Automatic annotation (TrEMBL):
Subcellular localization: Cell membrane
Membrane topology value: Multi-pass membrane protein
Keywords noted in UniProt: Cell membrane, Membrane, Symport, Transmembrane, Transmembrane helix, Transport
Pfam families per the UniProt record, alphabetical: MFS_1
Record function comment: May be a proton symporter involved in the uptake of osmolytes such as proline and glycine betaine.
Gene Ontology terms for molecular function: symporter activity
Family, per entry: Belongs to the major facilitator superfamily. Metabolite:H+ Symporter (MHS) family (TC 2.A.1.6) family.
Transmembrane segments: 28-50, 56-76, 96-114, 126-149, 161-184, 196-215, 250-272, 284-304, 316-335, 341-359, 380-402, 408-428
Listed PANTHER family: SHIKIMATE TRANSPORTER (PTHR43045)
A cellular component annotation (GO) from this entry: plasma membrane
SUPFAM superfamilies in the record: MFS general substrate transporter
This protein's name: Putative proline/betaine transporter
Chief location bin: membrane
C-alpha cells in the first residue's frame, strides 16, 4: 500500500470485517439520532414554534419567524463543519463525532426545557435562536465525520454502499422525529400538546444520545487516517489548504447538494405546514404520509449507492438529478389535488428520487479530497450546499406562496435549484476509480 493510496481517496488500507460493521452501524445510528434532534425542530417549527415563541405575530409572520429560526441552524453548520473538520483532520474522526453528539444532545434537551414567550418574554426567542445555533454547530461536524468513518472503513469496492449508511440516517431521523410527534399528537389532547406535550420529543433526545454514544465510543479510528498520522502528513491548517487548493471541488460539491437538500426540506418541513394550513388536513394525516415515504427514501439511497460502486458516482448522480428535475416540477401540482392517494404517490416518488440523489454523495464527497484534508473539504462542501439548499428552502417556500398565492412559484424555485445541481454534477469528474477502470476495460 502506497502513501498515495492512503491519501488520494482511491484506495484504503485493509480493515477487519468486524471493524467495518461497527463503523457502519455507528455511522447510521449516530447520524439518525443527530438528525432526529435536528428534524424535530423542523417539525415543531411547522406545527408549534410560532405561537409558543412569537405569539404577537400574525399566523403568516409567526410561521416565517419559526422557519427563520430553523434557518439559523443551517447558518451555524459550516462553522461546525470547519471547526470539527479542522480537528478531525488533525487528531481524528472519532473524537469529533463524540463531541458533535454531546453538543446536539445538550441543545435539543435545552429547547425542550426552554420557557416560552409568555413565561420570560423576549428572552425566550433569543435563547431559542442560541440553542438552534448550537444544534447547527453539532450537526455541522457530524456528517463529515460519519461519512469518513463509514467510507474509510469500507471493504474494497463497497465505498459507495457503506457511505450510504450516514445518508440513510437522515430519513431514519425524519422517520423517528415524525413518529414521535405523531404519537404525542395522537395521545395528548390539543390543549396538553400546546401547553407542554410538544416538549416531549426534545426531551426524549437525552435517551437516544446515550445510546448513540455507547455505540460510537466503541469505534476505532480509521486506518486511512492512522496512516496519514504515521506518515506525518497531517495538515497544519486543513481548511486553508482546502480553500487554496481544492476550492473548485468545494463549490461544485456544494452545488450538487443544493437541490437535493432544498427540495428535501420543503418535502419534510414546509409541506406539513402547507397541508394543515392551506389544504385543511389534520397534523396526523400529514405526518403519516411523510412517515410512509421515509422507508422508500432510504431504499433509493441504498439502491443508488450500490449502483455507484459499479456504474460510477457521477453517472448515477446525473441520472438521479435529471429525475429530480422532472419529479420536483410535478410535485406540488399533485399535492394541490388534495387527494390523499395522489399526494401520497407524489411524496413516495419524490422520496425515492431524493434518495437516489443522496446515495452516491458520501463516497463522491470523500473521494473528491485527499485523506489529510478530507474531513474539512467534505464537510465544507456539504454545509455550504445545506445553507443554500435546506436552510433557505422552507422560508423561501413560505415567502413565495405568501407573496404569489400559488404553489407554481415554489415549483419554479424547485426547477431552478434542480438545474443548478445538475449543472454542478456535470462539471465534476468521476471519482470512483474502480468504475473508471471498468469503463476503460470495456472500451479496449
Amino acid at each position: 500500500m502506497t502513501v498515495a493510496d492512503a491519501t488520494s481517496g482511491t484506495g484504503a488500507p485493509a480493515v477487519s470485517e468486524r471493524q467495518a460493521r461497527r463503523a457502519v452501524t455507528s455511522s447510521f445510528v449516530g447520524t439518525a439520532i443527530e438528525w432526529y434532534d435536528f428534524f424535530i425542530y423542523g417539525t415543531a417549527a411547522a406545527l408549534i414554534i410560532g405561537p409558543q415563541f412569537f405569539p404577537s405575530a400574525s399566523a403568516f409572520a409567526g410561521t416565517l419567524a419559526a422557519f427563520a429560526t430553523f434557518a439559523v441552524g443551517f447558518i451555524a453548520r459550516p462553522i461546525g463543519g470547519v471547526v470539527m473538520g479542522h480537528f478531525g483532520d488533525k487528531i481524528g474522526r472519532k473524537s469529533m463525532l463524540v463531541l458533535s453528539l454531546v453538543l446536539m444532545g445538550v441543545a435539543t434537551v435545552g429547547i425542550g426545557l426552554l420557557p416560552n414567550y409568555e413565561a420570560i418574554g423576549v428572552l425566550a426567542p433569543i435563547l431559542l435562536v442560541a440553542l438552534r445555533f448550537l444544534q447547527g454547530i453539532g450537526v455541522g461536524g457530524e456528517w463529515g465525520g460519519a461519512v469518513l468513518v463509514a467510507t474509510e472503513n469500507a471493504p474494497p469496492g463497497k465505498r459507495g454502499l457503506y457511505g450510504a449508511a450516514p445518508q440513510m440516517g437522515v430519513p431514519a431521523g425524519v422517520l423517528a422525529a415524525n413518529l414521535v410527534f405523531l404519537l404525542v399528537t395522537q395521545l395528548l389532547p390539543e390543549e396538553a400538546f400546546q401547553s407542554w406535550g410538544w416538549r416531549l420529543p426534545f426531551l426524549f433526545s437525552a435517551v437516544l444520545v446515550f445510546v448513540a454514544m455507547w455505540i460510537r465510543l466503541g469505534v476505532h479510528e480509521s486506518e486511512e487516517f492512522t496512516q496519514v498520522q504515521r506518515n506525518e502528513q497531517v495538515a497544519k491548517m486543513p481548511i486553508v489548504e482546502v480553500l487554496t487548493k481544492n476550492y473548485r471541488s468545494v463549490l461544485l460539491a456544494a452545488g450538487t447538494f443544493i437541490a437535493t437538500n432544498g427540495i428535501a426540506y420543503v418535502f419534510m418541513v414546509y409541506v406539513l405546514n402547507y397541508g394543515t394550513e392551506e389544504l385543511g388536513f389534520d397534523r396526523s394525516t400529514m405526518l403519516t404520509m411523510l412517515i410512509v415515504a421515509c422507508p422508500v427514501w432510504m431504499a433509493g439511497m441504498a439502491f443508488s449507492a450500490f449502483k455507484s460502486d459499479t456504474w460510477g458516482r457521477r453517472r448515477v448522480y446525473i441520472i438521479a438529478s435529471v429525475a429530480l428535475l422532472v419529479t420536483s416540477a410535478a410535485f406540488f401540482p399533485m399535492i394541490d389535488t388534495a387527494s390523499i392517494a395522489v399526494m401520497q404517490t407524489a411524496m413516495i416518488v419524490l422520496a425515492f428520487v431524493l434518495g437516489c440523489c443522496a446515495g452516491p454523495q458520501s463516497a463522491l464527497f470523500a473521494e473528491l479530497f485527499p485523506a489529510h484534508i478530507r474531513y474539512s473539504g467534505a464537510s465544507l462542501g456539504y454545509q455550504i450546499g445545506a445553507i443554500l439548499g435546506g436552510g433557505l428552502a422552507p422560508f423561501m417556500a413560505t415567502f413565495l406562496y405568501g407573496t404569489f398565492g400559488t404553489t407554481y412559484a415554489i415549483t419554479g424555485y424547485f426547477v431552478l435549484i434542480a438545474l443548478v445541481s445538475l449543472g454542478s454534477i456535470l462539471m465534476l469528474h468521476e471519482t470512483n476509480t474502480d468504475a473508471r477502470r471498468a469503463d476503460a476495460g470495456r472500451a479496449s
